[in-house]
Design goal:
The complex is a heterodimer. By secondary structure, chain A is mainly α. Chain A contains 17 helices and four strands. Chain A has a two-stranded antiparallel ribbon with strand order 1-2. Chain A has a two-stranded antiparallel ribbon with strand order 3-4. Chain B is globular. Classes of the chains: A mainly alpha, B alpha/beta.
Chain lengths: 454, 302
């Protein structure tokens, strides 16, 4: 009827409404900024505490919140462009091309770093950047099996990383085993611990499972701290032998890698070698995961994430299915942990705090649960991003010598995550690729895909 | 035991209590092989509870649920198995399963009972085809050598997967969803989701198919299609169907045997005609007090 078709009389001008909303946000910002920013206690010369007012900061925060909210409202109110529907199959092809390109870049990365930054700079870029990121890519891919495919939220993933690292450290130190023997052993031990944790917590789902796994991660860390005779407590374990090139150590001796190949000794060889080792381990993780997705066990994981009761009605043993997800995910964390121990040469419980678990979970969630490519991109963005923020010395020229860019690292990082969650609440790559198809492979919209909370 | 057909499922004195509430009270009935049996009754009569007990989702408070493949066992054998504490016995002429002792996934995998749910439970983020492949998990798992051989790319697994796809295609054809095989299950319209759930249950290769209100929410034409689908499934495959249904046109048309529950007790049991004319059933459906049943009975029977 005509009445229904008539545009509703506006309660007020949309601009006024937006201004009101932004004003409300500014008030909230004021309420938060006053106790946090307004006053700072400082000691004066007489060793007395004096209050130093900082109303300027409060003003910046309030105005910033007002402007940001207004901007957001204007952007949100703008008529949405309808995105052209991608041709069927196009995302898959794009993804494939992207993955192949990424792989080529990764393989050539040490060469590129060497060419761009020279010998002195390359160690930093390959080690802090390349190896560090690849460790997290691998951890992300490992956790993707548990969280992304099986839908089991595991907040204690770092525990298995720690088991791998300490297995490597203790086995090499106490039994004199080499890196290449300890690597699979560490993976197996971590998987064993995954099963051990899996058994009691399998009945739990969603938030309950998350809390129990979080506690497990803390238990492992506390055991590492307090079992001093074995783990060395806070002091950790040092002198873990470095990986060798099939028996050739990376040192300046005559039997070393450089001497054997008639090259001049430089620490770069070891770094490059380590990069390729972690690259191979990460690619192995990826290959196994992609393969598992097309096997009954992988499909059962995804079905479990979609609907556990339906799984049981089809004769799937959900206990075993969850255990395999836990064990395989933990095994990859164990590989990554043992590599970490061998690369550092020294480990202590401080490397295995809850923050590490949180970062890996954030990588999986930001990347898009279940998407291998998304997880890799998220790991590069998160770990690479935080590392890049260390390189912001030039900002001192703008803000003065007192400005410490690294202090803003976590702030920017948090801001980035908030923006991403507003823009892409289901992660960077949220669509799901089916594991089998009859005629054509079509990506599945993210709102249909379960998150393992049902 | 003078019944000509071997009962596939024998429910004996099944009781299920939730605290003080007796949902099912000493219920006994049988489902003969190759038949369609319907359980009907007013809301809250305990029909879905019976289903959940048979399929293992609930552990019954008391009673024996016996499923036999092949020939019937003698009473002595049954008592021996019941006393032994084992869950099933196989070999010889057939196997018998004590369902009340088995977890739900084992019932589905070994006793070969498949079910659907009152509120559809599909894997909505997986494609229609994937839903049907997941249903063949146990066979594929074996073919993939519990993942190890499959991971190494064994040909045996590729072959088994092709067979699984063929089977899925057969059932997709049967329920008219072959064109939508690569669409996510969550995108299907309601009636198609119901049919897909039946196809998924059939892909497990069941001996007994339990359908919980398969016609709920369907329009008359769709429920007509459902009736013919169920009839053709039962005609072409060695399977028994047990269904809960409120749609009397469906029940009366396809059932060989109808069981009526009210307040957890069986009030009638027999052919559709028998049940339709049973004054107790009419009284239960019309909401007559127990004392008045005889009066209603007298009024109906000339």
């Amino acid at each position: 009827m005509a009445v229904a078709d008539q545009p509703r009389p506006m309660a007020s001008n949309p601009i006024v409404a937006a201004l009101k909303d932004a004003l409300g946000t500014a008030l909230v910002a004021l309420g938060l900024a006053v106790p946090i920013l307004a006053l700072r206690t400082e000691q004066n010369m007489a060793n007395e505490l004096v209050l130093q007012p900082r109303w300027g900061y409060v003003g910046v925060a309030v105005v910033g919140a007002f402007v940001a909210r207004l901007f957001y409202l204007i952007v949100a109110a703008a008529p949405k462009r309808t995105r052209p529907v991608a041709a069927p199959g196009a995302p898959g092809v794009m993804g494939r091309a992207f993955a192949v390109g990424g792989l080529i870049v990764l393989v050539l990365y040490p060469v590129l770093a060497l060419a761009v930054t020279g010998q002195a700079g390359a160690v930093k870029w390959i080690d802090n950047f390349g190896i560090q990121i690849m460790i997290y890519v691998m951890l992300g891919w490992g956790l993707n099996i548990v969280v992304g495919l099986a839908g089991l939220l595991d907040l204690g993933y770092v525990a298995f990383y720690a088991v791998g690292a300490y297995s490597m450290a203790l086995l090499t130190q106490n039994f004199g085993l080499s890196f290449w023997i300890c690597l699979p052993l560490a993976g197996i031990l971590a998987a064993f611990w995954g099963v051990l944790l899996g058994f009691p917590v399998l009945r739990l789902r969603g938030d309950y499972l998350a809390i129990v796994t979080l506690a497990f991660g803390e238990i492992i860390r506390l055991v590492l701290i307090n079992w001093v005779p074995v783990t060395g407590g806070y002091a950790g374990i040092s002198g873990i032998p470095r990986p060798t090139f099939f028996g050739l150590p990376f040192n300046a001796s005559d039997e070393g890698f450089a001497a054997f190949f008639g090259l001049e000794f430089t620490p770069l060889y070891r770094t490059v070698f380590l990069f390729y080792v972690i690259l191979a381990l990460a690619l192995l993780t990826n290959w196994v995961t992609l393969r598992l997705r097309r096997l009954p066990v992988g499909r059962a994981w995804e079905a479990l994430r979609e609907d556990e009761i339906a799984c049981r009605s089809l004769g799937i043993n959900t206990t075993n299915t969850k255990l395999t997800a836990f064990a395989i995910g933990a095994g990859f964390a164990g590989f990554a942990g043992s590599f970490f121990a061998a690369r550092q040469g020294f480990i202590s419980p401080e490397s295995f705090t809850f923050l590490e678990s949180a970062v890996v979970v954030a990588i999986v969630v930001l990347g898009g649960m279940g998407s291998q490519l998304g997880v890799a991109i998220a790991a590069i963005a998160m770990i690479g991003g935080t590392e890049i923020l260390r390189e912001l010395e030039w900002l001192k020229h703008i803000f003065g010598a007192d400005f410490e860019p690294t202090q803003y690292r976590m702030l920017l990082f948090g801001l980035g995550m908030v923006i991403l969650m507003v823009w892409r609440p289901r992660g960077l790559i949220a669509t799901r690729q089916p594991s089998i198809f009859l005629k054509e492979r079509r990506a599945i919209r993210s709102d249909l895909v379960g998150e393992g909370r049902a | 035991m003078s019944a000509p057909a071997v009962p596939l499922l024998t429910v004996e004195h099944l009781s299920m209590r939730f605290g003080g509430l007796v949902a099912v009270d000493a219920l006994s009935f049988t489902v003969d092989a190759g038949t369609i049996t319907a359980i009907i009754g007013p809301n809250g009569a305990g029909k879905t509870t019976v289903f959940n007990c048979i399929t293992g989702f609930y552990k019954p408070t008391s009673g024996r649920l016996l499923l036999s493949h092949g020939t019937a066992s003698s009473a002595g054998e049954l008592d021996a198995l019941t006393a032994s504490g084992k869950r099933w016995r196989s070999g010889g002429a057939g196997s018998i399963f004590l369902l009340e002792r088995m977890p739900e996934h084992e019932i589905a995998a070994r006793a070969r009972i498949a079910r659907t749910f009152q509120n559809i439970r599909l894997f909505s983020g997986m494609t229609v085809l994937e839903n049907l492949i997941v249903a063949q998990h146990n066979a594929l798992m074996q073919a993939s050598g519990w993942t190890v051989l499959g991971l190494l790319g064994a040909r045996r697994y590729a072959q088994a997967e092709r067979q699984a796809v063929e089977r899925a295609k057969y059932w997709l054809d049967k329920v008219g969803l072959i064109e939508r095989a690569d669409d996510p299950a969550g995108d299907l319209p309601y009636g198609a989701q119901r049919r897909l759930e039946i196809a998924r249950a059939m892909c497990t290769g069941p001996a007994l198919l339990c359908l919980d209100e398969p016609a709920a929410g369907l329009n008359p034409r769709e429920s007509g299609d459902l009736t013919s689908l169920l009839k053709s499934i039962q005609g072409e495959h060695p399977i028994s169907i047990l269904l809960i249904e409120h749609d009397m046109s469906v029940v009366m048309e396809i059932s060989d045997h109808v069981i009526v529950l009210d307040y957890g007790q069986k009030i009638s049991d027999g052919s559709p005609e028998h049940v339709r004319n049973d004054p107790k059933v009419i009284a239960a459906y019309l909401g007559v007090e127990d004392e008045e049943v005889e009066q209603v009975e007298a009024e109906i029977a000339p």
